[in-house]
Design goal:
Layout lengths: L5 E6 L2 E6 L10 H15 L6 E6 L10 H6 L8 H20 L4 E5 L2 E3 L1 H8 L2 E5 L3 E3 L10 H7 L5 H10 L3 E2 H6 L5 E3 L4 H13 L3 H14 L4 H16 L2 H11 L8
Parallel strand pairs: 2-3, 3-4, 4-6, 5-7, 6-9
Antiparallel strand pairs: 1-2, 7-8
InterPro entries: ClpP/crotonase-like_dom_sf, Enoyl-CoA_hydra/iso, Enoyl-CoA_hydra_C, Mitochondrial_ECH-domain
Keywords: Fatty acid metabolism, Lipid metabolism, Lyase, Transit peptide
Protein name: Enoyl-CoA hydratase domain-containing protein 3, mitochondrial
Length: 262
């Protein structure tokens, strides 16, 4: 049922969202996209959550769009055109919510992250992957070039690597994905959740407001000309420096004690 597609667990300021459709390898069906979107909207307004972990139930992180659902849409008079247009628009809107979310988002990837599933991982701020995980934008193997997944992928890995993945349909094993910048950390399968949790706890221990302004500035300055990037981030630094908790953090560092953050 739709209400079971996402499972949420909150502990210590960390929200863990689990895509819960293991029988479909957590495919991004219309219903799944709607549920992820709704949960991200709730998190955007949630002041108590400092970090988000996104993971998949079962043996895969996410296998991309639901091909059976997409094929069924071809039975309409327009051969599915309106359905496909809405699907890709909704999916793109959902992906764009991830960098806009105030909290850092960590993708915890086991098994495979393919096509739009790879896009989902790449849209997160960081990725922790099992050592045997694999990443692919392999739609070309079935005649569908992964054009929308390409957007997120090309913002994480060098263009030549992305183009090779997109045109060959070949998978990157987790160690190679880490080498090219798609993955931040790898871990043995049995230690994947603990490794992800440890990273999340590190982020959650920082001043929440500083991480929030930092994430916003990180994405806002990307792609700007150098002078505009410095102007934007300089203004963010001034705002940050004027906070009471930043003053306290610097005083605590100089006095060699833990900060007393409000």
């Amino acid at each position: 049922m739709t209400e079971d597609l996402i499972q949420r667990q909150d502990e210590g300021g960390i929200a863990t969202l689990t895509l819960n459709s293991p029988h479909s390898l957590n495919a991004l069906s219309v219903a799944m996209i709607a549920r992820i979107t709704a949960e991200l909207d709730r998190l955007a307004a949630d002041r108590s959550t400092r970090v988000v972990i996104l993971r998949g139930a079962g043996r895969a992180f996410c296998a991309g769009h639901d091909l059976k659902e997409m094929q069924a849409a071809r039975e309409t008079a327009d051969r599915g055109a309106a359905f496909f247009r809405q699907l890709f628009e909704d999916c793109a809107a959902m992906m764009q919510r991830l960098p806009l979310l105030p909290q850092p988002v960590i993708a915890e990837v086991q098994g495979i992250a393919t096509a739009a599933g790879c896009q989902l991982a790449a849209s997160c701020d960081m990725v922790v992957a099992a050592e045997d995980a694999r990443f692919g934008v392999n739609g070309v193997n079935i005649g569908l070039f992964c054009s929308t997944p390409m957007v997120a992928l090309t913002r994480k890995v060098p263009p030549a690597v992305a183009f090779e993945m997109l045109t060959t349909g070949e998978f990157l094993p987790a160690p190679r994905a880490r080498e090219v910048g798609l993955v931040n950390r790898t871990a043995p399968v049995a230690e994947l959740s603990a490794t992800t949790r440890a990273l999340a706890e590190t982020l959650a221990s920082k001043l929440t407001a500083a991480v929030k302004i930092g994430k916003r500035s990180f994405y806002d300055q990307m792609g700007l000309p150098l002078d505009q990037a410095y102007a934007l981030t300089g203004a963010a630094m001034v705002e940050n420096m004027l906070w009471r908790d930043t003053d306290e953090g610097i005083r605590a560092f100089l006095e060699k004690r833990k900060p007393d953050w409000a």
